[in-house]
Amino acid sequence: MNRPGLETGTAPDDGGAASLDRGCLDELVGHLLRHAFLRGHQVFAGVFDGDGITPLQFMVLELVDKNPGVTHREVAGAMSCAPSVLTTALKPLVASGALSREAVAGDGRRAAYRLSDAGRSWFHGLRPKISRAERELLAGLEDADRASLRVMLRRIAGRS
């Protein structure tokens, strides 16, 4: 599926919003981060079109791949999302067999996750595409600006 603007590096048609007076909005970091976030999702959707994976599911798979046996609570914390949001992202991954869900020893209420062999193979086949998505998202920035942006975003997110 081709999304407008993904190949050219321009934003999709905004329905005439470009002519609106935005007041102070384009000076507000939170507002700009929201638009950058949405742009990231658009690029991800274009790069991963047909692969049956969402950005949240990619995050889950990356965390589980790097931390086998990680618990539901740990993944939700690392993703800064509510456990219910994580559950929504996990359900299709567990149902497809990409992830296995197991009870934590000594506490049957807690769930831990691991990639199945098939899930690991599928994810490792898809994983290189994230570099392409990053390149497309950041195409208008020089290498030094990309590095600076990541440093600043980590600071804002409290991950520096």
Description:
Helices cover 54% and strands 11% of the residues. A three-stranded antiparallel beta sheet has the order 1-3-2. Helix 1 crosses helix 6 and helix 3 crosses helix 4. The longest helix is centred in the first third of the chain and has 19 residues. It starts with 28 loop residues before the first helix and ends with a helix. The N terminus is likely disordered.
What keywords describe this structure?
single chain, 160 residues, mainly alpha, 3-stranded antiparallel beta sheet, 7 helices, 3 strands, 54% helix
Given the structure, what is the number of helices?
7
Rg of Cα set = 18 Å
H/E order of the elements? HHEHHEEHHH
| Helical percentage | 40-55%
Report the sheet with the most strands, covering strand number, pairing sense and barrel closure.
3 strands, antiparallel
- Gross morphology is elongated
Structural class computed from helices and strand pairing: mainly alpha
**Total E-strand runs:** 3
Distance between the termini: 37 Å
Q: Give the overall average pLDDT.
A: 89
Strand order across the biggest sheet? 1-3-2
| Beta fraction | 5-15%
Task: Report low-confidence residues grouped into runs of 5 or more.
Answer: 1-10
How is this fold's topology laid out?
Layout lengths: L28 H19 L7 H12 L3 E2 H8 L3 H14 L2 E6 L2 E9 L1 H10 L2 H9 L5 H14 L4
Antiparallel strand pairs: 1-3, 2-3
Describe what is shown at a glance.
It is built from seven helices and three strands, in the order H-H-E-H-H-E-E-H-H-H. The protein is mainly alpha-helical.
